[in-house]
Amino acid sequence: MGKCGAYGQAYDFQVESDARAAALKKCRGECTAVTIKRACAALSVDMRNPCGAHGYAVLPRISSSLNAATRECYKFGGSECVIRAWACDAKG
Fold first, then answer.
1. CB burial of residue 15 (10 Å; 0-12, 13-18, 19+)
2. pLDDT tens digit string along 56-73?
3. Domain residue ranges of the chain, discontinuous segments joined by +
4. What is the DSSP-derived secondary structure letter of residue 91?
5. Comparing C-alpha atoms, which of 84, 21, 80 is closest to residue 57?
6. d(Cα 53, Cα 42) in Å, to the nearest integer?
7. pLDDT digits over 46-59, tens only?
């Protein structure tokens, strides 16, 4: 994930470093990779100001990660936070 709602995803790689590199390549700008194992991740951004507040969460269940990511966005000053991206691994 990166600034202004940027994100990239990669999955089904046998080597974590390959997946990380592929996800970062898809993300525009300076991005940070978040690895999930037996979990779900969600990214929320403020649609009024996509370059402003955002939040993310990695939790065992998709519903929990979606709710937590949205709460984090509002916590950091978002006014219209929406889920921009989400993913679960096969065990999440």
1. exposed
2. 999 999 999 999 999 999
3. 3-88
4. T
5. 84
6. 14
7. 999 999 999 999 99
